[in-house]
Amino acid sequence: MTERAFPSASGLAETRPKYVGKPVQRLEDPRLLTGAGRYAADIRLDRMVHAAFARSDQAHARIVSIDTDAARELPGVIGVFMAQDFPDLPAIIAPSRMRDYRATACAPLARDKVRYVGEPLAVVVATDRYIAEDALALIAVEWEPLDVAADPETALAGDAPLLHEELGTNLLFERVFETGEPDAAMRDAPLRVSGRFRMHRKSPLAMEPRCYVAEPDRARDALTLYGSTQVPGIIRDALTGLLGLPGSRIRVVAPDVGGGFGGKGSLYPEEIMVCVLARRLGRPVKWTSDRLEDLTSTSQGFDEIIDAELGFDTDGNLLALTGTVVGDVGAYSIYPWTAALEPVQVVSFLPGPYRIPHYRGAVRGVATPKPPTGPYRGVGRPAAVFVIERLIDMAAAKLGIDPADMRRANLVRAGEFPHRIGSGLVWDRSGFIECLDAACETVGYNELRTTQAEARAAGRWFGIGIASYAELTGIGSRISVAPGMPINTGTETASVRIDSTGAVTAVFAVASHGQSLETTLAQIVAEELGVRPQDVRIVHGDSAATSHGTGTYASRSAVLGGGAAILTARTLRDKVKRVASHLLEAGVEDIETGDGHVFVRGTDHGVSFAELAHAVYSDMKALPADKREILEAMETFDPVTGTTASATHIAAVEIDPGTLSVRIHRYVVAEDCGRLINPLVVDGQVHGGVAQGIGAALLEELRFDEAGQLLTASLADYTVPSAVEVPSMEVTHVETELPGNPGGFRGMGEGGAIGAPAAIANAISDALAPLGIEVSELPVTPERLFRLVQAVLGKGGRT
Amino acid sequence: MSRRVDIALTVNGEPVTESIEPRMLLSDFLRDRLALTGTHVGCEHGVCGACTVEIDGVSARACITFAVQADGSDIRTVEGLGTIAGMDRVQQAFRKHHALQCGYCTPGFLMTVRDLLRNHPLKTDDDIRDGLSGNICRCTGYEHIVRAVRELADERDGVRGDD
């Protein structure tokens, strides 16, 4: 036993470092900054071959024949495979417990017919990717084109061409939420505003295109899939069913992943095919998406038409809200989330953070010959918040009330939580009003209105937009992330161990793709266990490391992973203390840990974690056998219902009357994600979300023509914000306490993207209020703005 | 496509000679031939900037450059900057300001920022944003990248920053 001189031993308990809440520099950065990261596309394996997919250039057509003879003869081509080569491979079906839900069958390679441009038809495997793509050009497909109903409302008509004939309809699901008597309340409301709103389709567009490498282990009849996925656990579980192998023989690893935003959160045909091909060929198979494939085959976001009406009284009290949503979900219901995920969330969140006694939200999901929609940052809430926040501003304008005051009067207040909104969601305590007030204070709201009045008097188009919202994050086991989805996403199990050298490893089922989990989870474990963050190795994104887990999505990882980290580290700390109490001959209650040491409080008597581990594992004389507790712990955290996060965004914009470019002068976010784990990381997540929200508001749209062809299939046509389009942002934090939650953490990965489209839409509408223009369609591109302005000013106007 | 040409160039200070197809992209050459996978491919049509490298000291997009065009030139990739144990100033500033999240676009940004610091005054933050506009980042919203570049530009110009 070594006696160790601790600096200022008596002050140790007080000086024990706290890591949660500190701007700890990221532990993942050194490798990512030096080119030492390892993304799926960086993986090279012996005997590895390359796949390339032949894809449909038709939106809806019957496959008459596929001629692959010339492709097969090309030197370097190992094989060309079609659906008939895998007769036992099941289709992807995302089941749902929702009543009358119509699941679609998506064959990994199209059988008989295709349902969107970009759908995989055949796959070439060759010795290199260049040759595989040469071979694609030699594949000839004969089509029988079928009628196309690309517009979702047309697709609902009785005579519309059916995408999935066996369903007998293009309507995949229908759902209604109702509270109170919305029709009567609306009829009796003294004042009403309404509109038809359109949220166009967008791409998650992670910078890293999807990539999968499947490595067969012939000796064990096993398989490892390295994939750019957010959900390795979900993929592993799905592959066991599709490939007929037990989970112990399929390992799914998400190495460094270059962003996800929802686009890497589902099961994909290409992911299945590389696994199937690797097993068929007995060698590693790799596929990397190019950007065209990403824009046509990665799951897409939004795409709703929303008719909504808001009733209120002359004092500005909200009385009733109705919304009718048609969601264009694309050709297939995506696994595991189902086609209901995005559109149903629109009506779930439409009432927002407000007191509205009467509500009806009705939603229909329609199959159209376009790529499948799936989770995208914010899921449903960007569209819902856009609509309710526009209605609030329209109501405020009708009453002549300031939009901030209109919100302040109707936001759920501190004493009113928990508050059940009309869709049935329950908000727990969160700083709704506090965020509004903090945002107004930060932006200098009254002065900004004065600035606006001056600008307006000078004929400038200057506007201020507010968006307040709430979201449900860190969803627990009692609620399904997607309605009716039959998998559990509400628990997270962590294990933390101290090995025989005293090193700490913490294992999670979450998967980090930019969220900084290797740092934030290490901060939590370090603080609870009494070591330094850099001493904690975080293992994540590896299905073989845990018994069950899903991954990272839905603003869950800080809440669930963080909660599990705390519970597990505390259990392990208790073990450490019990062992130390024997070694140090002191009571457990007098043992402290900190900075990698275990010591008797108020003394310099202690041991290092390495010495403690040596005593437990190696020095068989140090402890009696029954006191050698294995230094490992495993605990599960379940937030049961979830946690409410909220924010207010305020944007100030000016529109150039000549070019109609929108310049964002100020952008302020005040958000409540509970206790901050790492303020740098939280700010970064907010900034990134806002930038994507600005893209959704002003730039990003997947435009399809009437034949279902994508017109924006490159980054020259599908424009995402650069540093020039994104303003400097000011972020402030309201840390409302969260009783009953071990860490007090609320989820915040999606929030920025939820508030920004609404704030920008309101700011532009405010700027153009002198012309009576309301923004009801996003993105409001320069072309759309031109049409709106032209309709008012006409050809004789100044534009 | 079996015709091959021989090229000789310097990559991160090391002489390299390889026989390649004329159509091979510089990005694929660096990644697949030389296993320098720090250079990332984001769009393969010259928009996103993830593949930015230095060719004879000038930032260039490796995904729209053929490897044969680099014959005789001096290439620097992210692997030729600082190391994990000894990051260079640009890398350090990116870490300090949390100017990267997923890290996929980061090597391209580092190369662009080096070029900006060498060749542009960067007097205002708008100048920095203009300079960065050929590189897309989907995670950070650029705010922290701009702050990192501001610190580097001020340091270059002998201006004292706020911190």
CATH topology of the largest domain in chain A: Aldehyde Oxidoreductase, domain 4
Query: Which class do the helix and strand fractions of chain B yield?
Result: alpha+beta
Tally of separate helices of chain A: 20
Question: Rounded to an integer, what's the Rg of chain B over CA atoms?
Answer: 16 Å
Q: Rg of chain A to the nearest angstrom?
A: 28 Å
Report how far apart the termini of chain B are. Answer: 57 Å
Contiguous uncertain segments of 5+ residues of chain B: none
Report how far apart the termini of chain A are: 83 Å
| Share of residues in helices of chain B | 25-40%
CATH topology annotation of the largest domain in chain B: Ubiquitin-like (UB roll)
Q: Provide the CATH superfamily of the largest domain in chain B.
A: Beta-grasp domain
What is the C-level CATH assignment of the largest domain in chain A? Alpha Beta
Strand content of chain A is 15-25%
What class would the helix/strand composition of chain A place it in? alpha+beta
**Spatial arrangement of strands, main beta sheet of chain A:** 3-5-1-12-9-10-11
Number of strands of chain A: 29
**Biggest β-sheet strands, sense, barrel of chain B:** 5 strands, mixed
- Give the overall pLDDT of chain B as a whole number: 96
Number of beta-strand segments of chain B: 5
Average residue pLDDT of chain A:
95
Biggest β-sheet description of chain A: 7 strands, mixed
Would you summarize the structure shown here?
With 799 residues, chain A is α+β, with helices and mostly antiparallel strands. Helix content of chain A is 28%, strand content 24%. The model of chain B has no long low-confidence stretch (mean pLDDT 96).
